[in-house]
Design goal:
Chain lengths: 235, 252
Amino acid sequence: MNRLQRLLNSSVGAKVMVATTGLLLFGFVIVHLLGNLQIYRGQEAMNSYAKMLHDLGPLLWLARLLLLAIFVVHLGLAIRLHRANRQARPEPYYVQHTAHREPFHQRRVKATRMMVITGVVILLFVLFHLMHFTFGWINPQAYGKHDEAGRHDVFGMVISGFQNPAITLTYVVAMLLLGWHLFHGAVSTLQSLGLTHPVWRPVVEKVLWALLIFVVVGNCFIPLSILLGLWPPGG
Amino acid sequence: MKLTLHIWRQPDRNSPGRLVTYQLDGVSPDMSFLEMLDLLNEQLASSGQDPVAFDHDCREGICGMCSLVINGVPHGPLQGTTTCQLHMRHFRDGDHIYIEPFRAKAFPVIKDLVVDRSAFDRIIEAGGYISTNVGSAPEANTIPVPKEEADTAFDAATCIGCGACVAACPNASAMLFVAAKVAHFAHLPHGQPERRRRVLRMVEEMDRQGFGNCSNYEECEAACPKEISVKFIAEMNREYLRALCSPAADQV
Ligand code: HEM
Ligand code: SF4
Ligand code: FES
């Protein structure tokens, strides 16, 4: 217990926890996208995938609780660190200037400054997303329908939702902001977790960049392809 | 060269400060930045005004005393140099130059551009040393140190404790400084006995001094006059986690 307290109270420990939970959230987003790509296999595949998840019952609830806990730790510690950081520089510089010379680094500095803002927008988006597909408040006329096999028609709900330009726009903007959050976050985790190996570090960095592009492009492509009538064919 | 200087003037720790503008003529491009300030101070003193207080000692880039944030960048625009080694040829005739003190809660201003950096001393006292009996010098090769380890330790050991990393960090974090000290000892045989205790003590003392936390902006590395790499911060994080899992965590 003493050690856990020390971990959470120290600067390094809190950073490590933000990085670990951030990485777990990133992992969840990837798996979530892989699941959602079932939509391109048609109504049958999508609805049976959704039913399979629902039939997990208590396991599904366990996963949801775990995810919530991870989210709360990430957010809570990130905000605590942010507060301490602001207190550590009570008087700002008159001239604000980055010491970095290369444009890539300057862009990363901007993304880092935006972490709390992009984070809070992601939180709001997650609530919106739950209201949309889990509670069915955003687009109620498409919610609670059933397909021919008597399963919840998730496919129809998603298609109907993203045919609405305002909803699609919300999703695309949120995903771009998630990409911005991870533009700093993905590589930052390696630093926080202490990966310095000269061979593995660059490899892992490249893998994370690829996953980041996959997440942003994939999550934007689904709503856009539906809005533009590219999917479902003839729909 | 003729310059317009905007310099932070603050009478003492508890009074508010402000930027004061001075015109300075007759600056030679061969002067160092501190010599330029000496010139200004001579003129201020001879006209009965209070000279600008600033820190300096060796004036050859090794002691870490000179500070100054020049146009928003600690130690000024030249990469890998201290303020004392920055020369006026890197500025142009007619330039406006803004000179501010290092700003951090843990580094309170004493007067004008001078800040109190003893928070660093307290971190060093917490663990930035090795405990050994120093007698006569031992035979040079009794403790072999692999070349790569020695090089890494030396890269970290070049830190002069100037505090520019804190000044540059948007969070006023001291992690580059502490990481350099932790890594310096962790890569040498002499640092091994106290390795775990050292990182726990130094990191936790750093936290108590009111520095911010690293967000990996990496501004410190860009501003550091000794170009200490942020890879040492990653290494310190790893060292801290290991120490927290070791028996040393019960002792300190
Ligand atoms: C799906 C949602 C999210 C994912 C995938 C995610 C991922 C990440 C990752 C990977 C990091 C890097 C950790 C590090 O710096 O080592 C990070 C940092 C951060 N996250 Fe998130 N995050 C999410 C949601 C949020 C939310 C809702 C907030 C709310 C405030 C937030 C605030 C932050 C902040 C402030 C940091 C920077 C901490 C620091 O470096 O000092 N994140 N996030
Ligand atoms: S790490 Fe660099 S900037 Fe920080 S105190 Fe050491 S020499 Fe100065
Ligand atoms: S005065 Fe010693 S390093 Fe600048």
